[in-house]
Amino acid sequence: MIKLTELEQLIEVTLFTGWIKDERPVSLIIIAEPESGKTELVKKAQRVKGVPYLTDATAWGIVDNYWDKIEKRVVCHIIIPDLTVPLGKQTETRKAFTRFLSALIEEGVVELQSYAVQKTAKVEDLRCGLITTITPAALRDQRGGWRKFGFMSGLLPVSYSYSQGTIREIFQSILRHQYRREQPFATKVPDQDLEVHLPENFAGEIQSYAIIFGQAQQLYGFRLQKQLQTLMMGSALYHGRDEVNQEDFDFVRNMVLDYFGRFLGLNMATNYSFLSSNS
């Protein structure tokens, strides 16, 4: 895809964060205008082993179909290509979805009881990462009140847009049918949790970014620090290593500056303070 190579790698690295021992999987939300290729971007991970690709989802559907697989560490991430689809349902269904998924990607699910289902996790807490997309307009839309559940606070937001030069390049690629040659990820994630060593110097260097960008959202930056550390470890696994090095640090730092920083410009301009609600 044109000018999206780094984001493609970010998605793959995010998938590897699900296989780091004793770390919470990083969850990612990609924010871009319609026709920006968001869906095509995440669809590349559709064939990655153990990564369900759900065009629609409810809390009950995820529990019914994937609870046991998440519990057994067969599934570590779920992809929902358009977040507005499950969030566009009736109020109670939407509330149940956001509450359940918020717990799943954040503190973990220990027990689930409702009129429809009763489940108790056999592990200490049931956790799974999420990769999804949304448009800026949908993100601004406050109808439905789903933000008050703090659902967004556990997602690492990245944003992108195209320059006029890139738009012309994309049109040329369409004229030449280059989109027909797009290939899915050939990502081969581990089949068990792995230890990855993060040298303290890299954790310390990324801290300044966590503090600066955390403060931009009126947060301390603790959650972001953990996410960035885990991304560096995921990058090491992606490259077949068990220790973070300078390459991993540079990749994560560039992602923060280029894509998370772009989101923060959007965030501060439109007052997306709800992202830090209930955190």
Short descriptors:
279 residues; Rossmann fold; 6 strands; four-stranded parallel sheet; alpha/beta; two-stranded antiparallel ribbon; 9 helices; single chain
Short description:
Helices cover 44% and strands 9% of the residues. It has helices at residues 5-16, 38-43, 59-71, 91-105, 136-140, 164-175, 200-216, 222-238, 246-270; strands at 28-31, 77-80, 111-113, 118-120, 129-134, 156-159.
Topology, please?
Layout: H1 5-16, E1 28-31, H2 38-43, H3 59-71, E2 77-80, H4 91-105, E3 111-113, E4 118-120, E5 129-134, H5 136-140, E6 156-159, H6 164-175, H7 200-216, H8 222-238, H9 246-270
Helix pairs in contact: 1-8, 7-8, 7-9, 8-9
Detailed description of the structure:
There is one protein chain. The protein is α/β, with parallel strands linked by helices. The protein has a single domain (5-177, 191-276), classed as P-loop containing nucleotide triphosphate hydrolases (Rossmann fold). The chain has helices spanning 5-16, 38-43, 59-71, 91-105, 136-140, 164-175, 200-216, 222-238, 246-270, and strands at residues 28-31, 77-80, 111-113, 118-120, 129-134, 156-159. A four-stranded parallel beta sheet has the order 2-5-1-6. Strands 3-4 form a two-stranded antiparallel sheet. The longest helix has 25 residues, at 246-270. The radius of gyration is 18 Å and the shape is globular.
